[in-house]
Hints:
Elements: E1 2-6, E2 13-17, E3 23-25, H1 35-39, H2 42-53, E4 66-67, E5 76-80, H3 84-89, E6 99-103, E7 108-109, E8 115-117, E9 124-125, E10 128-134, E11 150-157, E12 160-161, H4 162-166, E13 182-183, E14 188-190, E15 201-206, E16 209-215, H5 223-231, E17 241-243, E18 265-270, E19 274-282
Parallel strand pairs: 5-17, 7-13, 8-19
Antiparallel strand pairs: 1-2, 1-4, 1-14, 2-3, 5-6, 9-12, 10-11, 10-17, 11-14, 15-16, 15-18, 18-19
Amino acid sequence: MKLFRFGAPDQERPGVMLPSGASLDVSAFGQDYDEAFFTNNGLEKLAEWLKTNEGNCPSVPGNVRRASCIKRPSKIVCVGLNYAKHAAETNAPVPAEPILFFKSTTALVGPDDNVIIPKKSEKTDWEVELAIIIGKKATYVSKEEAFDYIAGYAVHNDYSERAFQLERGGQWVKGKSADTFAPLGPFLVTTDEVPNPNKLGLWLRLNGETLQDSNTDDMIFDVPTLVSYISQFMTLLPGDVISTGTPAGVGMGLKPQRFLKPGDVVELGIDGLGTQKQTAVSYS
Length: 284
């Protein structure tokens, strides 16, 4: 299934895209895509519910706002320097273990919402990433069983303010967490539709120019390794997001460096997971 959410901010409703391409409002199912939904086998229950209720579900217009594909989770765990070429472009050594950091869940927005350049920002940057959505509580999970804990995958743009992240001391989180810095979606695509998440093309364009063009097979630590590794240090709850890192082509790695300015248009996507489009605007 492809799950999505739609509607005005703070009024979002759950939807499903059928294999036919039809988009349905499944509000009558009675549950949004949150921790409780995944905890209580919501994916299976929704699929079963649709068998008898699909015909009664209203269609979702194509021009309605798409929200984050899941409701705000308990946490967004990000992985740094997880593509070899990205590590090289930032003059960083290839990590021996995954580099982990948090991104505030208040950064979460829809896939086509504007990205707001933060107050006093000079170095707002882009990062197309594969996001893993956790499907059930995961603690001390082995690599071999990691896929059993995944609900699906989504496109994530891990926006980053590099001066806040790298020049102001402390942890990366403060350069990663501004409002609108985590567009997620348009879909949560369930695992049955993504047979190999470790071999997906992903790309990003700035004002029509392709700057990132890679494949998840360049990840240093693959999907099951990341789920297992992170679960050794914290419990992952249903609905939690793991953002798996970005390939080469970020603004910080270009020569000369380039960062977002008002009016810039960022487009990105991942094979089978959909596309996003954001316009950069100034904070006001």
